[in-house]
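Researcher: Structure for this, please.
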Amino acid sequence: MNTVSRPDNASVHIQFDDNSLLPLLFGAHDKHLARIEQQLHVSLASRGNHITIAGPADAADTARTALRNLYKQLKNGEPVNESVVDASVRMAREGTDTSTGGARIQIHRKRISPRSQAQEHYIDAIQNRDMVFAIGPAGTGKTYIAVCAAVEMFNAGKVDRIILSRPAVEAGERLGFLPGDMQEKIDPYLRPLFDALHDTLPGDQVVRRIASGEFEVAPLAFMRGRTLANAFIILDEAQNTTATQMKMFLTRFGENSRMVITGDLSQVDLPTGTRPGLQDAVEKLDGVPGIEFIRFSDADVVRPPIVARIIKAYDKTGNRS
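Model: Predicted structure, token format:
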């Protein structure tokens, strides 16, 4: 692929070297190109294996970077869809050129690439730090990326177990009124973690690993009194822990382990007046060697754009729940 900029920097010409990838790059009826045009307010004209980008210099350069990154992903065998196009535009706006490599997660033939600069920092932190806190709104990929990273490390033999946990806090509903025994009552709280595992691995593998004890999905209370060595440990929805629970969980950390704590401090379901353990940990542990904090914002939401707009609307009123 060759790129030539015109002297006035008002337009950019790109030539791609593999015509077979262009239908995937452009999308059906050029819908991917139209999406880039709409988001960046540029004009894209394709002719054969050439694209000419016209528009404001900064926007044209961003479009070029986004297209180059998408083309690189296709050459690497990664699929491109509308959400991937959006992510490529987002990262190009942030000045991130993903075509040169960077943080990735590889699970068998599936490659998980970051869809925002914050996600890239998050993946890098998980791969290089003992303990990582990921804080920010829903839809930013905090839990999904952590589970994928855990499976990658498990498959590589770097850990022997994956442990996924959540506090079973009542979010406007009473556990006692739910049908079934205690396990059946808490299963709905853990379902998002099961879903993340099943999205990462074939269902029969997940069932087999859980039965063997290699994968464990359990409420936070089940962590008490244990030392979790040779494990990748994830605490999800950590904003719903108390300070005492958070300290208990963090001190379960054992030899050759990796720990990721995720949460959204705007979605606290604790009783009024109870100090969230996540907030307490952020204040006490910031700056401690080996611990990294990754902070996401609504700009990092990788779900459909309407989700980011909903989050912004609630932020403006200060009434997110």
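Researcher: Any notable elements?
Model: The chain is about 40% helix and 20% strand. The two ends are 47 Å apart (CA to CA).
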